[in-house]
Amino acid sequence: MIQRELADKILKKGLPRKVLVLLGARQTGKTTLVKNALPRDARILSLTGDDPATISMLETAGLESLKLRLADSDVVFIDEAQRIPSIGIVAKLIADNIPHVRLILTGSSSLELAEGTYESLTGRKREMHLFPISWKELSNDIGGMKAAAQLQTRLVYGMYPEVITSPGKEVDVLRELVNSYLYRDLLSFRGIRKPRLLEKILQALAWQIGSEVSLTEVAQLVDADKATVEAYIDLLEKSFIVFRLNPLSRNMRNEIRKFSKVYFWDNGVRNMVISHLSDNGMRDDMGKLFENFIIAERMKKLAYTQSIAKSWFWRTQAQQEIDYVEEMNGKFNAVEIKWNPKAKVKFPNSFMEAYKPETMAVNRNNFDSWLM
Fold it and tell me: What domains can be seen in the chain, in order of their start residue?
């Protein structure tokens, strides 16, 4: 089993009178992570929001009933907690009144779980995010050389745990993941009324990774209004399918300020959405896949290390561009991402003069040092 970076943080964050909320897309390993991180001698009560009986029990449980039910438990673990309408109130009752219990909630939607817990658990919760397997986790598990040999495979099939542990069956696993989990969870949102529109928006975003996304153009492409497209992309972000990278604009008059880029948290999901899972080395989108992979992996690293860094891309109206810019404590790092190690890299003088950054060219031969 691949050791996850968050494993040693579960116990530190899951404290008495505090609720640990672990968020992440379906099938990223939240349940496995929690169960393996807890002490083997702990008395654990495991519940799931996918079970109607659990929902019914928690919806009607008062404080005294909860005390009786949890009297013999050290840890209460509620998986898919966003499906329990009253979870915020229940969690608050447990945190405030049953101090010997450590309460851990997991959810595949930051939107639904936040709606159910945010106000009720103000000052009482600790939040963590779990993503698909990170490059560091994979490298630590199988070794750097073996991981490097898998790079092209990972660019095509992605980093979901079951995808990695099912060589030769990646397409079947991804098909099940996308069709049975991704779409099912997204379609459970109150605001999603048009499944085909959601699919078309996802496909449009998948074809545009590495490019600035115009909501107006996407709306025209999928025959919807701009506000609807914005709302659907927001839900995709909160379901941990995609994330946005905003443009850096501070000092220069001709810097692009308007459009963001949209990346997928997992390359395999992106490729399944557009039904393009060829692994023959002849793909014409390897540069875009590598860029998506590198930026997603960097975002995982920043999240797991609880970094205060901010991430951007940079472009001017004159088409000068830098793939990725990171700012920490007022200092900038500029990164160009190239699949071909021999590709020439030049950072625009205007950016260098305005932001005075450190610079780095990341390619398939040197990227691992930046992600570890």
Answer: 7-129 (3.40.50.300), 135-371 (1.10.10.10)
